[in-house]
Amino acid sequence: MMEISIITGKVFTSKLGAGSPAAKRLYIKIFPGVFWYKPPRPKKAKTYGGELLIRYSSREWPEKKNGPLIGDEGLLNGISTLLLNLNLTNVSDISYAKNQHLLKETITISVGSALAKEMVDRGMVPLTELS
Q1: Residue 17 carries which DSSP code?
Q2: Residue ranges making up the domain that contains 18
């Protein structure tokens, strides 16, 4: 599933690490997950969607000590900034996925229709058509 990362960079969490007085800096890699397209139905628009998989190091963010990263707004803002560096415009169209993949040191991010369409149109991610 994770082959080539879209971008690698550093982000800052809004949560403090254990014993740290400041936000924690993490190096992450963003990988494409599954991106899909639903053809238009009568009276409904075509729909794009997808997911990004965010890899981080447990040495930089030990969950047992610092708690889970899911829900951290600083991390989500940092991911948006990294996507902005790729000249994407709909970077705020992301959120934490309700169903996380059970991959170690990985967070699943849901991508909204506008950003998913933009990434597909640029050829950054493969597309799966749903019926």
Answers
A1: P
A2: 7-129
